[in-house]
Amino acid sequence: MTDNTTHLTEDERHTAADGSLPAERRAHVEAHLAACDTCAADVARIVAFMKRTQESTAPGAAASLDELWSPIRARIEATKVVALDAPTPSTSTRSPVRLVVAGIAAALLITTIVLRIRPHEQQTSVVAEAAPDSSLLRAVADSTKAYEAEAQILLDRLEIQRATMRPEARAAIDRNLHVVDVAIAELKDAIARDPNNPALRQLLATSYRQKVELLKRANAS
Amino acid sequence: MNARAPESSRLVQAESESARIDDAVRRARQGDVGAFEIVYRAHAARIYALCRRMVGDDAQARDLVQDVFVRAWERLTTFREQSAFGTWLHRLAVNVVLEQLRSRKRDDARHTDADEWLAGPGSLAERLDTRMDLDKALARLPAGARTVFLLHDIEGYSHDEIAQMTGIAPGTARAQLWRARRALMGMLDV
To answer: Which of A2, A11, B70, B146 has the most C-beta neighbours closer than 10 Å?
Structure first.
């Protein structure tokens, strides 16, 4: 069996080598391999190569991976504080009642945390344990600025939509925004008294994120 | 009997370590960053190896390891304990790396031109160190072929799973795999 026209296809050789040959082709391929030295040698090469790759050791890192934990933790701390729930399906996001509940819950949570981490009190939250390192403060400040800008864009867009909104939906959105804005104002006030408190800055970023989320839901409703 | 004692001791240690990590995963899901550090230390090496092989570069792999664990933290609540955490994390890591690869407009200049490596491995082999190991050879494959090869031959994903993850047709994934194997065989002089 040395005629090129009858050799196994590339697909057959590889699937014969890695064991993924379809059952209906197996008898034909095995019969061919038993008779064709060229194909048998090639399949054996592929098998040898696969064995070699499976035996190869995974690459190790040039430097310790332990040092990556610190930046990972900083990124986690910058975003976690008050975890936002994943956006709910569109049907539920359109309900003004849910908007009110979500907004008030978010703002109450923020306000509660603000009250707990007043600078003169013992800091007990996980976030408050974070050391006030300058890169974290900078990252949080950048994040706050970005959310602030995004919130303004969404507010502008909402203004355009207002005219077409139902009065009750408009009122619900206004109530929500007011509650979150009060929380933001409290946080800004707290930061003015304790500017190097990373937990307060993270909370401010989070409250802006809450505001952006509310505005996005409002714009989608 | 003497030989069995250390073996059973190792098994007990492994089970205890596994239980410790499972517990850390549970606590991390509840927001405990300290517990997540235990999870990180248990899985970082494997995730690094995956990233390193997929992108072929230490610095990029280290960046990706960070991205993977930050993403894992964000998605921890979606992890269902019915499946193994390691499997869940591995799949998430593959997705993070694939997203990064997709975001690249072109292959890195380090990679050989697709036509060149498809033309046959002989000319490449001449320019490569004969003692080249698999990872160096892998780094010279185009990203798409490298990805398919790694996911199938190293990580054990099926063609259908690879097609789903990468967005290419299963038939294309198979063809990429055959070509990648041939190119690597040439480079490694198998």
So the answer is: B146
Same domain, yes or no: A24 and A102: no
Q: Mean pLDDT throughout B79-84?
A: 79
C-alpha angle B1-B3-B5 in degrees, rounded to nearest 5: 70
| A167 and B CB contact within 8 Å | no
Name which of A10, A60, A76 is nearest B33 (Cβ-Cβ): A76
**Does A61 map to a domain?**
no
Q: What is the pLDDT of residue A110?
A: 56
Q: Which domain holds residue A205?
A: 66-220
Q: Are B33 and A127 in contact (CB under 8 A)?
A: no
Residues A118, A210 within the same domain? yes
- pLDDT tens digits for range A12-31: 999 999 988 999 999 999 99
Nearest to B68 by CA among B82, B55, B84: B55
**pLDDT tens digit sequence for B26-43:** 999 888 999 999 999 999
pLDDT greater than 90 at residue B17: no
Residue in B181, B182, B184, B188 to test binding to A, most A beta-carbons within 10 Å: B181
